[in-house]
Amino acid sequence: MTPLAPFYLLGALAIAGPILFHLWRRTPRGRREFSTLMFLSPSPPRVTSRSRVEHWLLLLLRGAVLLLLAFAFARPLWRTATSEPEQASDEELVAVLVDTSASLRREGAWSELMTQVGASVSKLPTTATVGLFAFDDRWRSVADFTELKSLEARARRELVIARLKELKPTWGGTNLGEALVRTASALQEIQTERATPAKLRIILASDLPVGANLDALRGFEWPSDLRVEPLIVRATSTSNAGLQLVERNLDLGDDLLRVRVTNSADAKQETFVLKWDGTDAASVSVYVPPGQSRVLVPPKRPDGAAATALMLTGDDHDFDNRVFVAPPRFETKLVVYCGADRTDDPEGLRFYLDGVFAASRRYRVELVGWDEKKEDPLTLTLSPQSRGEGTKPKMEDKQKAERPSLVVLTHLEAAANVFVNEHLAAGGAVLIAARSAESGTATLKQCGLEQVTLSEAAVRRDAMWGEIDFEHPLFAPFAEAQFSDFTGIRFWKHRALEVAGKRVGGGKQEEGQAGGLPYGGRTLARFDDGTPAFVEFSVGKGRVWLMTAGWHPADSQLARSSKFPPLVYRMLEQASGAVSRPESVPVGSAVPWQKSSGDVASRGTVRWPDGRTVTDLTLDAAFAETTQPGLYSLEVEGRSETVAINLAADESRTSPLPIEQLESLGVRLGTAERPEETRRAQDRQRQLKLEELEQHQKLWRWGLLVVIGLLLAETWLSGRTSSAPATKAE
Known about the structure:
Elements: H1 16-23, H2 56-73, E1 92-99, H3 109-123, E2 128-135, E3 139-143, H4 145-148, H5 153-166, H6 176-192, E4 199-206, E5 226-232, E6 241-245, E7 259-263, E8 271-276, E9 283-287, E10 293-296, E11 309-313, E12 322-324, E13 331-338, H7 350-358, E14 363-369, E15 380-381, E16 401-402, E17 406-409, H8 417-425, E18 429-433, H9 437-446, E19 452-456, E20 465-468, E21 495-499, E22 502-504, E23 522-527, E24 532-539, E25 542-547, H10 564-576, E26 584-586, E27 603-607, E28 613-618, E29 630-636, E30 639-646, H11 659-664, H12 675-697, H13 699-729
Helix pairs in contact: 2-13
């Protein structure tokens, strides 16, 4: 029922129209002269009474129609006895949300925060139930309402104060959005368990930096009865500069170490000094104006020194002035090439693989031809140089063998049958690049794929990849819009895939169905004519990747494309079980274990930056206890990998967050609800109840039905009354 609905009742005044029309007397227009009356003088009729109503029933019908129309448009309802909504009790549920992120490590910030929180908790009335929650990049319950339910009021308050004193700032980020959402959900959950609703409030104690993550608030509808009381703390100095490591693309040979120095918008310092940790390390001066950042190359790491971190001096707060740099990790990967190409032939396939692997700074990849193999059919001996163990060979180095990570087949090597089959049986991966239909079919049979053959496809001018399965782990890194376009790569020739003599293509075939691909085949990429371009088969524990066109110039432009190196390294990582991770991992992020092909180990060891050692960790779950910056050592069966854990870059953005930004996301700020807002809320609740009652009754529908009936009766009666005088006149 809208506020304007009662004004439709003014339409009932239109009933005056039919009354006036019924009282209006019109003088007859027709005039007829009689000759016998020409000698008489005219005399007007004597008026004995005013105009009177002749058709009372017709007048009543027309008046009733107008009254009922006004009644229907006013949307009437029968008021019933309704109970007022339950008023909130005097009790109050207060959630104290404390920020423990790394930005609170600034001088003076944490002590001021504890002072303000303690004063706010002590001022709360005894009827208030106080819960304590903390957050950095993760939200956690310190003393939730369920735990406090069984305690007395005094014991609750003492428990909250005791646990508040135990809180310390961590090295995590500021995920403010998730913390507010989860705290609001906890308050609503405990509210539903109560017989009468209580007043809800969140006391947010934080420095509210501009680098806080608010994404979780964007899709959350903030409760109308929940208010947030912010306790904003400030450090003794507003100046703050941060140091971050710029990520390098080691796969493409980008081995230049760079760092980014940022300065807060409200900073007073502009000049800083960058150097490696250590007394005799060289240093460079850095000038960064407030609100800006600079990317620069740090000084050279001191020779023979165990420098593990870069330091920024000259800043008022040093919590984010250190970035740890892990030593270069040159993990050895062995690739076996079965083909007749020479290493210096630019028309061959091996030439381009050698160029891609030589440019890598992430792995030491040794591409070994089948004719260079040793006696053991399943393992090949690596040179000491390929393992990064120095240039002087040792006697035991000559006997050290590695399992191949990937086997590339471009030409049939009959002597390699046992090697290929045992490699697949051990869970290895084989890449088949078909230079011709005959060689491709032969290598497929060598891998045990007897039902699959290849034939030359007819290409008029050129072809391109038109459909790619970006959900597969091999192509998942290319799923983003800026990397997913493969249409610029042209293929001059390619082979068609045939299963049991029938060509596959001309439409997508679902794997596992009749007419699909055998051996658990899955098409990862198709040409624009629908024929498969990249197919994955399962052979025992291993897998076979089939490319129906090569990357050499005679077949395509793939080798000269920027997509080729990351695609090759993705296949190498998938084949060996390696994990590609950034050089700098943020604090709190999970670190997956690095595995090699053929690994049978199931447990690992982690050495923390402070010297602690945690053993017997499962390799199935990533290591997530990265709670402090530093260098972590992950060991699996004698192999050790060093991972650099650093502070999140957003933690250096310590400028104050505009409080209006929280309000724009729906958060209701304030200490208490105003009386006028309470009155407006009650009026709105009453109006909603009336609208619900009106929607349930809908009396206006019955009014319109009666109006239609009255109009029909009025039409019939009007016709009768107008035809009666005409009949008498005749």
